[in-house]
Amino acid sequence: xxxSNNDEGLINKKLPKELLLRIFSFLDIVTLCRCAQISKAWxxxxxxxxxxxxxxxxxxxxxVEGRVVENISKRCGGFLRKLSLRxxxxxxxxxxxxxxxxxxxxxxxxxxxxxxxxDSTCYSLSRFCSxxxxxxxxxxxxxxxxxxxxxxxxxxxxxxICRGCHRLQALCLSGCGNLTDASLTALALNxxxxxxxxxxxxxxxxxxGFTLLARNCHDLExxxxxxxxxxxxxxxxxxxxxxxxxxxxxxxxxxxxxxxxILHLSNSPCGHERLRVLELDNCLLITDVALExxxxxxxxxxxxxxxxxxxxxxxxxxxxxxxxxxxxxAYFAPVTPPTAVGGSGQRLCRxxxxx
Length: 355
Description:
By secondary structure, this protein is an alpha/beta fold. It has helices at about 5-15, 15-25, 30-35, 40-45, 65-75, 95-100, 120-130, 155-165, 180-190, 205-215, 235-240, 260-265, 270-275, 290-295, 315-320; strands spanning about 55, 80-85, 110, 135, 145, 170, 195-200, 220-225, 250, 275-280, 300-305, 325-330, 350-355. About 35% of the residues lie in helices and about 10% in strands. The longest helix has 11 residues, at about 65-75.
């Protein structure tokens, strides 16, 4: 339908802009684009960002190039919540970086079949799009993905990633506090090449999930499990049995870990041959006995023991006599020195020792 100048002027006068925008919000992309060509007034209404909260470009995939995505991102900005670029093989990292910078409220993003994108896009999304709930990229060559602090990412999103990225070697999920063992299960069943897993502050993960992961991902080299507060020695036992390549492990604030778990770790192939870094900050059940076990880890280079209240200076010195090259970082409680009768005790400050 083509409006004359008079008709156009009449409808614009009779209906307020808010109502016209409401009407436009029900139109699909093609219709919006056609309306944008009617007049200057309708162009402004049709291209208003509020009308472009959900966009699916699958039907136009052969025509969608990088500049199209960039223009959409500039037009929609913070309004855009859902975008499907499924099949848009002309879209690459540069365009998606611009998109990520402009559309920081994006929640659902489908990049299925976008074969030009690389880890660079994943970096851009993790840096700028903290509200992402789903990433469906199916990038079969993807080896590294950083989703740190994407707090709205759910198990469903991680499952979709794992199903499409079987070559994944490094994954950062630190700060994704909604994740459960379902994500670890997806990793275990789909990503056998996984070498690095960062899952700090994922407080819902349990021994069950890490058991399945250890039994399927034998190439694990580095794991950050800080504040995975539900895990116990059982996780260490499974890692000791199934992950001989483990080099760095953070268990800080995992307060259920005990000396027995460290015993299994230190007596394992990874403990004897590979383990270089072990972080046990705020592991309140760890004692000097654990340090005796760690004497078996001849390659250990750094040990973190901040606020391990049952570890003593004497215990650290005994371990260093066996492992003189290891650097130990630890806090010790304040000390009250002896004073004369009637005098006042002076407390020494908390101190950090690096041995």
